[in-house]
Amino acid sequence: TNEGKSLTGDSLFYDRNKGYGEAFRHIEFIDTINKNMLTGNYCYYNQLTSYAIATDRAVATDFSQGDSLFIHADTLQLFTYFLNTDSVYREARAFHKVRVYRTDIQAVCDSLVFSSKDSCLTMYQDPILWNGKQQLLGEKVISWFLYPFLISFSVSTYLPFNESLGEEEIE
C-alpha cells in the first residue's frame, strides 16, 4: 500500500529499492485516490512512475464519476501524467477484444484510450457503441462523459459524419 494504492494477488513480488511490484493470479490493483481499479491474473505496477499493466482477464474499473465505467480487454495499461502536480491525470489504454460497460452505454472495439483529464473515450478498429436505442459505428468513435450526459461521434472515411447526444442518466 502506497498513497492510496494497493496491489494484492495469490502470489506477490515487490522490490522496494526499484519501486515495482508484480502480482499473479486473482490480482487487484486499487487506487482509492484516483478512484480506479485493475483486476486480472497478472499485474505489474511501478510505484515511481505510477504505471500499471494487467493481463489475463484484465478489467479496469473507473468509479470517479457518478457511474462506474468497466473496461475489459486482453491487456490494460494505466499511465499517470504530471505525477506529483495539481495537473495529474491518468490514461487507460486497452488492447484487443475490448468490451466497455456502463449503465447508459455498451461498446466493443479492438483498442481504446480513456483519459481522466477530459473524460474522453476514443475507440479504434471497428468500434460499435450502443446508447439506449442508438448505435454508433465508424473507424473511430469518440465519446465524452460529461455527467450526466454522454456526447459521442464517429469518424469514418466511408460513412458521413455521425453524432449522438445521450440522454440524461437515470439515478
Beta strands, count? 14
Tally of individual helices: 0
Envelope shape: globular
Q: Output the structural class.
A: mainly beta
**Strand coverage percent:** over 45%
Amount of helix: under 10%
Tell me the series of helices and strands, N- to C-terminal. EEEEEEEEEEEEEE
> How does the major sheet shape up?
14 strands, antiparallel
Mean pLDDT across all amino acids: 83
Distance between the termini: 33 Å
Structural descriptors:
single chain; 171 residues; mainly beta; 14-stranded antiparallel β-sheet; 14 strands; globular; disordered C terminus
Descriptive overview:
- The structure is a single chain.
- The protein has 171 residues and is mainly beta.
- It is built from no helices and 14 strands.
- Strands 1, 2, 3, 4, 5, 6, 7, 8, 9, 10, 11, 12, 13 and 14 form a 14-stranded antiparallel sheet that branches.
- Strand 13 and strand 14 form a beta hairpin.
- The radius of gyration is 17 Å and the shape is globular.
